[in-house]
Amino acid sequence: MRGLDSAVHRPSSAMFGHDAYPDLITKAAALLQSLAVSHPLIDGNKRLSWLTTDVFLRFNGVELDTDDDSAYDLVVAVASGKPAELDESADVLRTFVPS
């Protein structure tokens, strides 16, 4: 369960007194990436990563507006290492936030 613990604490990471992830969506992308890549469970890691990210954002007042296919495409891409940069995943998540 070490991977799960690390993954859920990643969004709150700080370096030299500054948040490692500057905004809520980037924090959510870090959470999504950590859970999808670290495989803390035997099965269901992609489902866990999406559900946890969605709940994290809802708890922080952001409700995503996306279809299942777009969410699936993002999670599969993140789990496979594409996009490689966290900011790219965050940019996709931002498109799911209604204006």
TrEMBL record:
Q: Name one Pfam family in it.
A: Fic
Tell me the superkingdom of the source.
Bacteria
* Any GO MF annotation of the entry: kinase activity
The record's annotation in PROSITE patterns points to: FIDO
Query: Coiled-coil regions in this chain?
Result: none
Q: Write down the InterPro entries for this protein, in alphabetical order.
A: Doc (IPR006440), Fido (IPR003812), Fido-like_dom_sf (IPR036597), Type_II_TA_Toxin (IPR053737)
Gene3D superfamilies in the record: Fic/DOC protein, Fido domain (1.20.120.1870)
- Fido domain location is 1-95
Recorded protein name is Type II toxin-antitoxin system death-on-curing family toxin
What is the native source organism of this protein?
Nonomuraea aridisoli
